[in-house]
């Protein structure tokens, strides 16, 4: 069985690196754990870092986190479905909100549970995922800031999550100005401007982050050390907190060109023949993962001589060229992962999970 391994020492190194940076700039931050899909083995390692705040998009995962550490602040990071409201009040200390009706229902449920629920109002800043339109924010805030059981503790925004809109100084200054407008009009302090995610970190490192941005939610940078502006690894961070180990289940020297009449495969893909490859062969291996577990484009081979060819539902096909390393059936190949690849693997019950200490 293929296995995903998390390297505890590398995770700790990345966490300490980020924590030093945020503390130096007086920025609060929390870890986004939605990548881990509620796996207690890995959540335990995250909580052991000493984190005080955890973000997730699944209330069931927050329930698991609260059972593991009742003191950690849990944050639900997408608009709430109505049927989830009782659990959100019970297991999330904070939630991101954009709908008046839902906030009113959260208020009623918070009163029933005798709790004070904190919310961050998300503002649309151009990426067109969740968020209140800026010209509607004052009226929106006026409708919710005195609701019983509800405390507005922040304004926030997402970038690069849907259409790839990147954060800029101008957009983040605009987000900070919304806070100033609300505080001036309502004489009410809003502690956080949550404009920081992994994609915003380069602005911080380059001294381009507006002073008003004082809260970050970090997932990808922690687990992959990735600068999303350059697609390179941040200096001083690890890009291989996770590694996927896969076993070779077949290895044969085969033609490089398929033979026969070609049609779409089950994934809807069509292939064109490269006539320059006629008559050539390559050592081709089948690995014990497939599309059910991961999209091959999110795999990064540790061996530069290996080329990922494609995948079917349960098998991944790679070319080994001349097989310089003399791989054989039963040998294990290692891969780094991109974020979406790790998310798929972590959501697969067919992939083993281990912690390396």
From TrEMBL:
Listed cofactors: pyridoxal 5'-phosphate
Record's keyword terms, sorted: Isomerase, Pyridoxal phosphate
UniProt KW Isomerase keyword: yes
GO cellular component, one term: cytosol
KW RNA-binding (keyword) present: no
Gene Ontology MF terms: alanine racemase activity; pyridoxal phosphate binding
CDD domains: PLPDE_III_AR_like_1
InterPro entries cross-referenced by the UniProt entry: Ala_racemase (IPR000821), Ala_racemase_N (IPR001608), PLP-binding_barrel (IPR029066)
A Pfam family matched in the record: Ala_racemase_N
Domain Alanine racemase N-terminal, first and last residues per copy: 9-225
UniProt name for this protein: Amino-acid racemase
């Amino acid at each position: 069985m293929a296995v995903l391994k998390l390297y505890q020492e590398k995770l700790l190194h990345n966490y300490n690196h980020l924590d030093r940076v945020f503390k130096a700039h007086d920025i609060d931050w929390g870890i986004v754990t939605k990548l881990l899909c509620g796996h207690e083995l890995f959540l335990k390692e995250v909580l052991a870092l000493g984190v005080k705040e955890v973000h997730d998009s699944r209330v069931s995962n927050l329930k698991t986190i609260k059972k593991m550490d009742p003191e950690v602040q849990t944050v639900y990071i997408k608009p709430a479905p109505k049927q989830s409201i009782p659990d959100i009040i019970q297991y999330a200390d904070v939630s991101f909100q954009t709908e008046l009706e839902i906030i009113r229902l959260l208020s009623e449920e918070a009163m029933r549970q005798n709790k004070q629920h904190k919310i961050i109002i998300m503002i649309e800043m151009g990426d067109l995922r969740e968020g209140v339109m800026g010209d509607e924010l004052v009226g929106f805030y006026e409708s919710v800031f005195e609701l019983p059981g509800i405390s507005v503790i922040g304004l926030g925004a997402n970038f690069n999550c849907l259409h790839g809109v990147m954060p800029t100084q101008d957009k983040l200054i605009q987000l900070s100005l919304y806070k100033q407008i609300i505080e001036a009009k309502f004489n009410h302090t809003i502690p956080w401007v949550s404009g920081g995610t992994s994609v915003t970190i380069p602005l911080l490192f380059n001294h381009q982050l507006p002073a008003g941005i004082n809260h970050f939610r970090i997932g990808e940078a922690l687990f992959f050390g990735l600068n999303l502006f350059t697609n390179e690894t941040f200096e001083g961070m690890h890009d291989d907190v996770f590694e996927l180990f896969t076993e070779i289940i077949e290895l044969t020297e085969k033609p490089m060109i398929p033979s026969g009449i070609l049609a779409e495969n089950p994934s809807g893909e069509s292939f064109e023949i490269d006539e320059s490859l006629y008559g050539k062969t390559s050592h081709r291996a089948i690995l014990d993962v497939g599309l059910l577990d991961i999209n091959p484009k999110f795999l990064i081979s540790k061996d530069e001589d290996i080329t990922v060819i494609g995948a079917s539902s349960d098998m991944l096909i790679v070319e080994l060229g001349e097989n310089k390393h003399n791989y054989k059936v039963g040998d294990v190949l290692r891969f780094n992962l991109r974020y979406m690849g790790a998310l798929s693997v972590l959501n697969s019950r067919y992939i083993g999970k281990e912690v390396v200490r």
